[in-house]
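Database export, one record per block. Field names are fixed; values are copied verbatim from the stored entry.
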Amino acid sequence: MHLFINGLAASAGGGLTYLRNVIPHLAARDDLQTTVLLSGQLRSEFSESTNVSFLSADDFPQIARRFWFEQRAVPRFIKQSCANVLLSTGNFAIRNPTVPQILLSRNALYTSHHFEADLRARRELHLWIDTQLKKAAAKWSIGVADSTVAPSEAFAQELRQWTGKDITAIHHGFDRAAFVRDRTPLPLAVQEQLDSKGGALRILFVSHYNYYRNFETLFRAMPLIKRQLAPREVVLFLTCQLAPGANPGSYHANSASALVRELGISTDVVELGAVPYKNLHHVYRSADVYVSPAYAESFAHPLVEAMASGLPVVASNLAVHREICGSGALYFDTFAPQELADRVVAIVQSQSLHTQLSEAGAERSMAFSWRTHVERVIGLASELCHARNGK
């Protein structure tokens, strides 16, 4: 079998994490040839191998331009590479690709009522219209793909209700050995910021700034946590910067930055900026508690990374979060800062609870495997090829 992966949509976040982890497992398979189409900026990250070859295309800052390029070019690339199955990784399918197509659908914003309400509340008309167009394209894509795969059962159920189509849930994976393999030290500036807060309770949230990760609820919880744990210092580490142009996408961090100042927690929120993925395990190990307040999610890789790093987790009460973390986390009502604060304080004040969550999370993280994910995707591809060939 020859698999063609359309990875043009991968630029940051989950899409990039996916390719970084899946490609090595595909390269290790002697029974499979793989051709990967990447944006030019990512091509240098990956090396050719006997079983995996790469094509690159221009970077497309606008999704609409990339979408139309893909519709024209990907079928041609598939024919040139002699591939017999297509894996579309960026939420949008290719129309009439001439081979069976598996679509990876992993954007929870298209089914999130909270996101639409958030955009209206922020008066983000342009982003609301943009999301509606993408939402329509994503729904159309599920209709034309031979099979659609979601990264969690909770999100698969959302897609089934939204489209009425059959959706396959295949968990994304995690490879702890690969995650901690690189021993390169953190950039000096980042390490100095981490070291400057010795003795403080260190809360960590790994994400670039966007609206659906619900930073504001976490910020509002900070004074409440500080009040309950006084006189101990409490610090929140972010792997982003709350500054214009410092984050991918069309999200404006101005209001979030203003909220930090309004709450009087400017010295308690440390903006590390983007940390290279290979170094990220050092940041997790420097923290005491991991928090995710997101109101929309389809899998949440940082939760698995945090659990594998031994951190107790506090997460918003999403079905996806409960599926991924199980007993390795405490949960709070998504928009309730006091509940978030109470969960963090409970962990800090109970060593037995801290240990219980840490051990349960570490065990839970072992349930996710990129090898297993690849095997299931390849098995699905094989079934589609056999069905197309009438065998």
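Remark 1: The chain has two domains: 2-173+369-388, 180-365.
Remark 2: The chain has a mean pLDDT of 93.
End of record.
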